[in-house]
Amino acid sequence: MIASPQAIRIDRAGIVAEAVISWRYERDGWTVELASAATGAVAAHAADAFEALCRVREGLEPEGWRVGVTGAQADVWPSGMARDQGGGLAAYRLGAEADAVVDTFAPVDPTTTSTVAAQQAVAERAGLGRPSA
Questions:
Q1: pLDDT tens across 55-77, in order?
Q2: Are strands 29-36 and 15-26 parallel, antiparallel or unpaired?
Q3: pTM of the predicted structure, to 2 decimals
Q4: Residue 82: what pLDDT?
Q5: CA–CA separation, 90 vs 83, rounded Å?
Q6: CA distance to 95, 97, 106, 128, per residue, from 23 (Å)
Q7: Residue 98 pLDDT > 70, yes or no?
Q8: Distance between CA 118 and CA 57 in Å, rounded?
């Protein structure tokens, strides 16, 4: 498991910027914060770290930004158990890699990531889905 904070890259239409993403558990859930000179600081709080990451991404998506972490790739989604018992810090790579477990916040090339909506559609086809909370 990787540790918070992590240096990552974000991308908007071929413009790559350095960023730092951090996550922490607080008494009633998880907070994820992304800070970059290009975007400023964006934070979200949710029941698990994966959902908080999705909310941060949704805040950046209207401006075209993609976040370079494994948890933002289209074929990655956590199970309910991974969310409930592991805080969403680990997720599954769906499909070809036989549901391999990956670190949600591991740095990846941001051009390999997708929107939350596209990622959720892949997860729903795999029998997983986003919680209502």
A1: 999 999 999 999 999 999 999 99
A2: antiparallel
A3: 0.93
A4: 86
A5: 8
A6: 27, 27, 12, 23
A7: no
A8: 12
Q: Which residues contact 119 (CB under 8 A, 6 or more apart)?
A: 72, 73, 74, 76, 77
What DSSP element (H or E) covers 44? strand 40-46
* The 100-103 sheet, strands edge to edge: 76-77, 90-93, 100-103
Distance of CA 41 to the CA centre of its chain: 16
Per DSSP, the chain holds a count of helices (H) and strands (E) of 3, 8
Q: How far apart (Å, rounded) are the C-alpha atoms in residues 2 and 123?
A: 23
What CA–CA distances, in Å, run from 34 to 17, 23, 41, 56, 98?
Answer: 12, 9, 6, 7, 30
Tell me the three state secondary structure of residue 90.
strand
Q: Scan for tokens 């929107």, then name that residue.
A: 115
Contact 57, 73 (CB under 8 A): no
How far apart (Å, rounded) are the C-alpha atoms in residues 130 and 133?
A: 9
pLDDT at 110: 98
CA distance 65 to 53: 13
**Residue 90 main-chain phi, psi, to 5 deg:** -125, 150
